[in-house]
Predict the structure.
Amino acid sequence: MTARILDGRALAKQLTGELAAEARQLAADLGFAPALAAVLVGEDPASRAYIGSIERICGRVGLPFRLVAMPEATTEAEVRAELIALNRQREVAGIIVQMPLPPHLSARVVAQTLAPEKDIDGITPTNAGRLALGLPALVPNTPAGGMEILRRYDVPLAGRRAVVVGRSSVVGTPMALLLVRADATVTVCHSRTPDLAAEVRRADVVAVAAGRPRLVTGAMLKPGAVVVDFGINFPDDAGGKMVGDVDFASAVEVAGAITPVPGGTGPVTNMMLV
Ligand code: NDP
């Protein structure tokens, strides 16, 4: 069996058109185009590149984008003051704070300053709590993108057995909560799970966010399982190529459907933010 490819690039293209239409309607209803603001502290090139990709999507969709670039030496009080100002600006509808922050800044303190209704990456305790309570919430983009792929490709979740590998607050844990909300029966695995293969083999849907290249192999999968790979790794043995947390070559022979890396969850993640 060769798995169906869950094509994130194609979905992102489709979403661009839908979002552009929504953005036009929103601007007409509000009388102004709501802006996305990105707060970037320091000069990390990977963070700059990520923010650049968000800016390009905003441009394609027709949403104003505002970059607030602050020097590496910015104090916590200065970041908080900037966020408080953005919280108050009516034309700024959504704010992201690029992580990781420089080590002298507390991500927790910064997250607590963000207005929950503008917290489009779901980092505030309020949104995390609302997600856990099953209330409407702004959720982290990466798992939101994974769920969007499953929804758009009509993957049934109700009553299915799902395994999430990884329990981080940005990917694994919110993905598990979203799958529970979609009525799946969910198991969360992590580094202390004694027999990962046995857990994965029981799953109809496997979502992997472990940060370990090729951790989940085809031999671990139940034939026909749907695999969502969040991994972004550049291991030495891949010759500079990006590989996922799933061993694509073996998994594609066993799975029923799979997100490739690159071109799977990544392109959809940024669309969810917008
Ligand atoms: P973290 O390092 O924060 O979390 C990794 C999780 O995986 C932890 O819960 C850890 O367990 C678990 N884990 C590590 N090794 C194993 C193992 N051998 N078996 C089972 N579980 C294991 O990573 P993130 O959640 O931030 O990111 C995960 C992956 O997703 C990375 O590859 C990252 O690059 C990618 N990512 C992708 C995005 C996208 O847009 N597609 C966006 C963000 C991240 P424990 O808790 O016990 O330590």
